[in-house]
Amino acid sequence: MLDVIVAGAGPAGSIAALVLARAGVRVMLVDREAMPRDRMCGDLLNPGAVGLLQSLGLDPDARRGARRIPAMRVSGPFGSVDADYAPTHGVALPRRDLDAWLLDEALQAGARFHTGDIVRRPLIDDSGPVSRVRGVVLLSRSTRAETRLPANFVIAADGRRSILARQLGLHAAVSRSPRWGFGAHVSGVEGMSDASEIHVRHGWCLGLTPLADGHVSLWVSLPSRPAGRSPQDVIRRVLARDRTLLGRLDRLRFDDGVGVSGPLLVRARLPGSPGLLLAGDAAGFVDPATTDGLSLAIQGGRLAALEAMKTLDDGEFVGAVGRLADARHRALGRKLQFDRWVHRCVTSPTAVDAASMGARVFPGPFRFAVRYAGA
To answer: Which pLDDT value is given to residue 197?
Structure first.
């Protein structure tokens, strides 16, 4: 019997499986998709994410296709700020390569990988005094037959639309703007340097990150899902609203398809249920303008794995949820609070204008904020 099933082979799931496998835990990763796969993402590991990977003995700088990002430029309607990350740095690495690399590291450590089936629901054990999760039920994509896959513990790293979290009632309603995201690899962007860029405007944000192959990773965040003939048309219409950006992007070419994702904002009431813990976007999705998504996913996967190991040793399945909540608060609380503040700012036109004018007059505090966001 498996010790732990990790649902989802993204960065959070693979990091959780890596930590568990290195400790000798019998762990299986389950994902409906094979690797490598494309993901709609900014492709940016900020300095915090780079440091976390290095602490696990993983060096993103050494990966083929990686590009060092020494700085971040943030602009608003009335000004911009350039913030140098030195002595640290970020790394641009396409999600297709990042996900495949982290999964391979987990497999080399001893984890197993099962792909092609869909996680349908949690497997609940009601035989004890407290009901707890004891595995998952899989649905075959080819035969549509269900299979029970038992385990002593489950880590749900199956994304912001986590079927496991939703069926266990762990996700909370979100009243603020949920936002939608569009992402693609593009070329024809004028004036790109080695820095990553975030441009905040009234109701929308644009991110640009230079990649090692000369292309640019582009994402657009919008307050709602807009109308358009195609995702490419949506992005071009948004860029046409800003003459400064349009001048740099009037020769924009899409090198592949455009990923669409939303609603993006997810909040978890609790980070788990007896026998199951949440990690990655399943535990809460932050605004892409924070550049913190991958860092929080990696840290969240590691914390869930450490708590799973402790629970397997002491059998305190009910207390595991509270212990993970405390661990996440200690490790991530301030950053999550900061990220929520950034989300409120970028969704308020008044705040965007005030911050933009403030950055032009007093750039120092804004440079500090950009560095803190990437730490």
So the answer is: 94
Asked if residue 111 is part of any domain, the answer here is yes
d(CA 179, CA 342): 14
Within-domain flag for 285:
yes
Domain range holding 335?
Answer: 2-39+95-172+266-345
pLDDT at 253: 93
The pLDDT tens digits of the residues spanning 231-250 come to 888 888 888 888 888 889 98
Terminal-to-terminal C-alpha distance of the chain: 40
**d(C-alpha 220, C-alpha 288), whole Å:** 9
Helices and strands, counts by H and E, the chain: 10, 22
User: What is the pLDDT at residue 5?
Assistant: 98
% the chain with pLDDT above 90:
57
Q: What is residue 209's predicted lDDT score, i.e. its pLDDT?
A: 95
Q: Residue 95 and residue 75: Cα distance in Å, rounded?
A: 25
Residue 374 lies in a domain: no
Q: What angle do CA 276, 277, 281 make, to 5 degrees?
A: 130
CATH number at residue 316: 3.50.50.60
* Total number of domains in the chain: 1
Per-residue model confidence as pLDDT tens digits over 274-304: 999 999 989 987 767 777 889 999 999 999 9
**pTM across the whole model:** 0.93
Judge whether 239 lies within some domain.
no
User: What residue ranges in 175-298 does DSSP mark as E strands?
Assistant: 180-187, 196-201, 204-210, 216-222, 253-254, 259-261, 266-268, 272-273, 276-278, 284-285
Under 8 Å between Cβ of 180 and 174: no
Query: If we measure between CA atoms, which residue out of 27, 12, 168 comes closest to residue 102?
Result: 12
